[in-house]
Amino acid sequence: MSTQTVAQNKHLVLRETTKQSKLAKSALRGSVLPVVVLIAWQALGSVGILPAQLFSSPLLIVMTFIDLVQSGEMGMHLQISLTRAFLGFALGGFLGLLFGVIVGMRKKSEEYLNPSIQMLRTVPLLAITPLFIMWFGFGELSKVLLIALGAFFPLYLQTFLGLRNVDKKLYDVALILEFSRREQITKLMIPAALPNILLGIRLALSAAWMCLVVAELLGADRGVGFMIQDARSFMQTDVVFVGIIIFALAGKISDSFVRFLENHLLKWQDSFKA
Amino acid sequence: MRGLVATLEINQVSKTFKNENESVHVLDHLNLTVNNGEFVTIIGPSGCGKSTLLKLIAGLDSDFDGTIMAGDLKVSAPSKDRGFIFQEHRLFPWLNVEKNIAGNLPLKKPDIRKRVDDLISLVKLKGFEKAYPRQLSGGMSQRVAIARALLRNPEVLLLDEPFGALDAFTRTHLQEALLEIWERNKTTMVLVTHDIDESIFLSRKVVVMDAKPGRIKAIVPIDLPYPRTRTSKAFQEFRSVILTQLEHHPAEVEDWSI
Asked: A62 and A26 in one domain?
């Protein structure tokens, strides 16, 4: 290997390490505030300034978390919550995608369907919840349907938007190349709308989590939301905190998953340097 | 060898763009015949309807009077037999070079794979098969677009100012590449341009159009052997002939709008 390439490699390695140290530094800076808060929280709690009834100390929260995991209680609640969220998201997301495609593809179906869907979209989900409980009872069905409703709108809206923004110029190309109607959908419309659809999935996921919490807080006998609600009535603040953290983590993980998908599926975009 | 058969026959074609309160007469009873294997360029001032005419031939717009025949068939919709190269490359941004060329044809099929590979070397893009359009220069993208059109073995290739947005070097290079392809495949070429040199360099027949309403003003046959040199005396003479045709505007043009 010539000295020049060695020097180049060294330079590259150097650049890589400076990039990494830059990342590490910014991560460090970002964690300063949370760490300070946690330490202060723990200290104030230990001294007795913060009322332990309302602010369980971070250490206690961690212990409770471990306890809940070991007893299997956490696994049971988490499993039922994840199942609800998944079923609701799958149902609502699928319907949102389907209706988004139907309305996005045909002007006439837009005229028939879109005004009603847009009107329903403005109704706050919380206001519909009692109705759902009356109709479908306290069981799984009402919860899954509520989550589905929450996931439906973002995906519907973004799919519709994405399809409407397909470049007319590329459509002309598809005509010249004699794409069949099916190919127009699979090889032009869907890929072109994909950035919007993925955004819709992300928004639908966060909506699904929110609806899950609402559904479980309002009436459930299992699930992470129930765990929080139940702990509240016994003033077990540490368990409430654990529940909140679980929801935060679940939201973050699902969001990261979609980001991962975006990085892979949209690497053709200028803004995604994969 | 294909005989002297009319590949395109444009018969009394008129086109009017209608707005709410005004209508613009773009093409007025236009007649033109393009023979098999011919290279024809259409030149004219902007607004003369030359691009519109090309879109009508392609079948992208079927709202016009008169008839356009491609071979024995009346043009009513786009077809793979009439390839189209736009001014912008119009590649699918989510597909890499080879998939863009293949489009809706399966790259897994050995014969398609082979022809795509052949075309990639024909347009000199070896090594860029997996590159995405955003990674390509304007000239490279346009070559991909040409390869995409050629894969369908079109009878006619319609080119709408294909090199207009490129720099001078790239343009010259692509003009030569296009001539090479034409001489090799004997594809009928109809190219719209506003560049006089380009039209003389490339074609056997220059169609000069007039604006408002768009009509054919003159057809100038270019009987120079290929390859042509832009600096030759004969080339200069053709340039002045076409220039005179383009500059000469009859005064009564205004009265044409109805």
From this structure: no
